Structure to design on (112 residues):
């Protein structure tokens, strides 16, 4: 017979009242990672759009043409959206890191 699972006493969990401080190093490393992903998504988008432009859909059926245009637009749009989101995240994390450094230098509370 199987034993019932024991519940953890909550030792692994962070208490609700405690705040984790954010360091400028973690902000800058996250910004670098997000910026790298943004550049990779942008390059992938350019490659996809170039491949789509090099291979046009040749058909007499208007439904086929409309569906192919919609799919191509959706694929390029989703990759462009990913590049934009990662780019804005990179900028935001970079600015947060600068704000934390300025707060430390002025002596204000640097916890976020």
């Amino acid at each position: 017979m199987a034993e019932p699972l024991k519940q953890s006493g909550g030792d692994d969990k962070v208490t609700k009242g405690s705040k984790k401080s954010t360091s400028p190093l973690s902000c800058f490393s996250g910004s670098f990672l997000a910026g790298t992903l943004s550049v990779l998504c942008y390059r992938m988008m350019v490659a996809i759009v170039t491949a789509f432009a090099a291979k046009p859909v040749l058909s007499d059926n208007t439904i086929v043409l409309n569906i192919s245009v919609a799919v191509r637009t959706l694929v390029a749009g989703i990759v462009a959206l990913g590049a934009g989101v990662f780019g804005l995240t990179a900028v935001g994390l970079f600015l947060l890191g600068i704000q934390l450094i300025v707060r430390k230098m002025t002596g204000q509370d640097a916890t976020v």
